[in-house]
Design goal:
Strand order of the largest sheet of chain B: 6-7-8-3-9-10
Oligomer: heterodimer
Structural class of chain B: alpha/beta
Largest interface: A-B, 18 and 33 residues
Distance between the termini of chain A: 10 Å
Radius of gyration of chain B: 18 Å
Largest sheet of chain A: none
Largest sheet of chain B: 6 strands, mixed
Order of helices and strands of chain B: EEEHEEHEHHHHEHEHEEHH
Helix content of chain B: 25-40%
Number of strands of chain A: 0
CATH topology of chain A: MetI-like fold
CATH class of chain A: Mainly Alpha
Strand content of chain A: under 5%
Chain lengths: 270, 264
């Protein structure tokens, strides 16, 4: 069962990645050029999923959309991990007040939803892929800081850290040599789950017009364009919705599967 | 008369958690001379582990002093503890916990050598010397030379404790503090590990502080015994004296409870 979760997650994630890679070099049709004569074609040949209101091939737009999705996910999760993990380790290793300061600051950030930050950034700098990535990344920092701190507290209580201290290893040495490698699996799981959240947030921001600007296709904006036709041509909303759902599901399953796979206690029970 | 290596005076450690507090160590005083082999005996919760953690500078006492080589260590910041870290090494109870599962054995054993505090960082700057020392200590604890590239989980309990001992020996300490080093091991390998420790301590001329609840091991290994109960030191003296004329009823009870088995 757990294997099943991991495998399905991996398959879904790999298909998204593969689609994005292929779209870098090839899409069936031009994903941007408007062809008024072909508007709103039903699924068939050669437009497998039909065309949108501008006569653009939906398959091609979905493929390019996967690029934006992954790009935002990767950068946002990287920002969150690169800032959040060291902060969490610091909080877990440090004395009481260091930990308090870091965690309370993280609570403050946690109180701001990514959406609010994105609106703030869009107002200040104009909406773009970058403001979306920065907003999602910053909003996700606390999640990483918490997981890293919890893992660090666990590692710091171990005998091997006591042994390291007794043989003169510095605090930095303990962080790099013992804490980081031992919390890496936790961080990996967190990254996968955060990726799913980031995809959802990016779709939401594009839907609201706060993310990537036209004409670059994103799944969120395809959904927005399709909502006017929700009753006339519901398939238009189905495709990008399905893409978002499957990508989010894939990263969540991958995260769950990884957690179960890496947790030795759970593994022994089965 | 020269000063003892360790002088512990009125050492007290109180753990507080919220309103509750536990006195783990209560005004303990003792001395360890260079070359002594001191056994610290007591039941679980008697304060044995607390005492050696304070002696190793891994914890701070609530009150009292620990002098090592003429200097009080209990208030010194880590960077000023180089003299202690170079001279005193520890072996912990359970090698499953004291060896980092994600480090190779070679990295584990040379970890003390990569510290800036040990030998003024001499080994830190010299990877070739670390490599030589690694081979020496692997040999000293009877582990195959190819152990260095493997991970702790590939070894048995007894072998893992040998790895922990090798790590403790690597920086050439003069004092070894061992916290029940065989109680987590299978009975069948305890004697091997104890004999190894015994041989090493004799060959190198180490000062040994050996925590245990097993009196027969103390008789075998230690020149002096200290008996702890509920954080208090009940008595301390040369092993033969404590064993033949115990000063406290508690010690007498402990001795009476030892199964009579002849060792080696």
């Amino acid at each position: 069962m757990k294997r099943f979760t991991l495998v399905v997650g991996l398959v879904l994630v790999c298909s998204v990645v593969l689609t994005a890679l292929v779209s870098l070099v090839w899409t069936p049709f031009d994903p941007i050029r408007v062809v008024a004569a072909d508007a709103l074609l039903k699924p068939g040949w050669p437009h497998l999923l039909g065309t949108d209101a501008f006569g653009i091939d939906i398959v091609s737009r979905l493929m390019i959309g996967a690029q934006t999705t992954l790009q935002v996910g990767i950068i946002a999760v990287s920002i969150a991990a690169v800032v959040g993990v060291p902060l969490g380790v610091l909080a877990g290793q440090g004395s009481g007040w260091v930990s308090e300061v870091v965690m309370r600051a993280s609570d403050v950030v946690y109180a701001f939803p990514a959406l609010l930050l994105a609106i703030l950034f869009a107002a200040a700098f104009g909406g773009s892929t970058w403001t979306a990535m920065a907003a999602i990344g910053i909003a996700t920092i606390p999640a990483f800081a918490r997981v890293a701190r919890a893992g660090t507290l666990h590692v710091m209580a171990s005998d091997y850290v006591l042994a390291a201290r007794s043989c003169g290893t510095s605090r930095m040495g303990i962080a790099v040599r013992h804490v980081m490698p031992n919390i890496a699996p936790l961080i990996g799981v967190q990254a996968s789950v955060a990726f799913a959240t980031a995809i959802l947030a990016e779709a939401g921001l594009s839907f609201l017009g706060l993310g990537t600007r036209p004409p670059t296709p994103t799944w969120g904006r395809m959904l927005r364009d399709a909502q006017n036709l929700l009753f006339g041509d519901p398939l238009q909303s189905l495709w990008p919705g399905l893409a978002i759902a499957l990508a989010v599901l894939g990263f969540n399953l991958l995260g769950d599967g990884l957690r179960d796979y890496l947790d030795p206690q759970l593994r022994e029970v089965s | 008369m020269t000063e003892p290596l360790y002088t512990v005076r009125d050492l007290t450690r109180i753990y507080r958690r919220g309103p509750a507090s536990v006195t783990a160590l209560d005004a303990v005083s003792l001395e360890v001379a260079r070359g002594d082999r001191l056994g610290i005996v007591g039941e679980s919760g008697s304060g044995k582990s607390t005492l050696i953690r304070l002696m190793a500078g891994l914890d701070r006492p609530t009150s009292g002093t620990v002098r090592f080589a003429g200097r009080e260590i209990q208030r010194l910041p880590e960077r000023d503890l180089a003299f202690l870290r170079s001279e005193v090494q520890m072996v912990f109870q359970d090698p499953r916990g004291s060896l980092d599962p994600r480090m190779r054995v070679g990295e584990i054993i040379t970890e003390p050598l990569r510290s800036a505090l040990i030998d003024e960082g001499r080994y830190r700057r010299d990877p070739a010397a670390r490599e030589r020392r690694l081979r020496e200590v692997l040999n000293a604890v009877d582990l195959p030379a190819d152990s260095a590239g493997r991970y702790p989980h590939e070894f048995s309990g007894g072998q893992r404790q040998r790895i922990a001992i090798a790590r403790a020996l690597a920086p050439e300490p003069s004092v070894l503090i061992a916290d029940e080093p065989v109680s987590a091991l299978d009975v069948s390998v305890r004697a091997q590990v104890l004999n190894l420790l015994n041989d090493l301590v004799r060959d190198i001329g180490l000062t040994l502080v050996f925590v245990t609840h097993d009196l027969s091991v103390v008789r075998h290994l230690c020149t002096r015994v200290a008996v702890l109960r509920n954080g208090k030191l009940l008595e301390e003296g040369p092993t033969p004296q404590v064993f033949s004329q115990p000063a406290s009823d508690y010690t007498a009870q402990l001795l009476a409870a030892v199964p009579k088995v002849r060792l080696g």
